Amino acid sequence: MQSSPSQRFDSVDALRGLTVAAMIFVNDPGDWSHIFGPFGHSPWHGCTPPDLVFPTFLFLVGVSLALAGGPKLDNAVDTTALQRSWWWRAARIIALGWLLAGIAVLTLPSSPGDTVPWRPMGILPRIGICFGLGGWLYLHLATRTRWFVYAGLLLVYGALLLWWGDLTRDHSLPSRVDALVLGRFAYHYDAATGLGFDPEGLLSTLGALSNTVLGALCGDWLRRRQLRPIVLTGIAFIAAGLLLHWTVLPLNKNLWTPPFALFTGGISALALAAAHALVERFGVPPVGRRFGVNAITVYTGSILLLCLLDGTPLHGWLYSHLFDPMIPALGAKAVSHVYALSEVLFWWLVVLWMDKKRIRLSI
Fold it and tell me: What is the value of pTM for the model shown?
């Protein structure tokens, strides 16, 4: 039987693109000491708008898995080659993350007390892990079983957090695991005490993986144009996440607690439904699509640009000559985010050119 081609929705590309643009905006302010409260990550417990960016991207990884693999499963096509290609792509994403981490170590100035020589965990390695495992789960498990896996990930991880009891940065179970296994390669590590933590650490990846699994489940509904279950799931999961936050475990991005996974998964589901309704049903232009079709390329380029600017006097020169003069009129915090917006604009011009030349790069 012939396989159906992978489905592609402009709404998914647009939402992914807006997510990448938001990632650049929150990761590259001009001055980290001048950030508006809503534009900064939560110090520990809680959830701010920037905390929603990475979960949404992982959710869309799952959606894309369903759009690519779903037609093959529907037609009972042998998915061995597809699974192999997904494992290789996951490995390439992880390797790219390791390469960028090495470049950052060589180029970026160290912060006071920073002893991390090279970091194996990070944004791209976590994406690669969730892509590979999420793809395997999607191709080898029935839909009902995937729901059980989703629930199991949150229940087991939540039980471990509750059993351990301590949710502080250096003494939580995920932090102790990262300090033990990653040691000085964790994001923060104190050799004198043996304590540390990594916001993209090992154990907390259980919570992150659940967002990708949920994305694949919602992606199946999207393939069939069934928005109602996506919306109902989004509302229910937001409510469940907030209820658990108030009663059992707090929302916490660094630990990726089950309430955080539920809450952000629900918001991502509603965003997916809204994007599909606006773009595919009502014909609203898919703003962000150009970012979305070259998402990894833009993210990689933004990291390399950051290394170039912050690793040389170029950043200081640009900021002092182009942005500092705006401070008397706008204020230091506003100017810091004008700088971030200028980076987003720069990459928008890049992807606009790539789109006109029909250039799409992937790994």
Answer: 0.94
